[in-house]
Amino acid sequence: MPSVIHGMLKEEKERNLELQVIYSREIESLPKGSVMVKRISGKDYYYLKYWRNSKAHMDYLGKDEALIEKIRYETKRRKHLQDVIKRLKMEYKEICKIVKD
């Protein structure tokens, strides 16, 4: 007969996988890279810098400060979620060592 703790760990294992899927989907909708500023002739120009196919790319973001802040927030959110998923995967491995079904 399984213990209460075993049941809780099974539930936590399922919850962990669900969170990994939810966060992965959210990451797919967020922009890659980071916002960088180039100062040219005393004016600031904002770019989204990211890697694709082993090459660095920079997309000009324009002058809309609200858009720039939104993209800055989204890129930080993406990095945060990637860290969260990394920790969830480590926790999942630990749970799997204990719960073998």
Domain module tally? 1
SS content category: alpha+beta
Low-confidence regions: none
> Average pLDDT across residues?
94
Helix content: 55-70%
The main β sheet shows up as:
3 strands, antiparallel
- What is the β-strand count? 3
Radius of gyration: 20 Å
Number of helices: 2
Describe this structure in words.
- With 101 residues, the protein is an alpha+beta fold.
- The protein has one domain (4-98).
- Helices cover 59% and strands 25% of the residues.
- It contains 2 helices and 3 strands; from the N terminus they run αβββα.
- A 3-stranded antiparallel β-sheet has the order 1-2-3, with helices on one face.
- Helix 1 (4-29) runs antiparallel to helix 2.
- The longest helix has 34 residues, at 65-98.
- The model has no long low-confidence stretch (mean pLDDT 94).
Q: What is the element layout, followed by pairings?
A:
Elements lengths: L3 H26 L4 E7 L2 E10 L2 E8 L2 H34 L3
Antiparallel strand pairs: 1-2, 2-3
Helix pairs in contact: 1-2
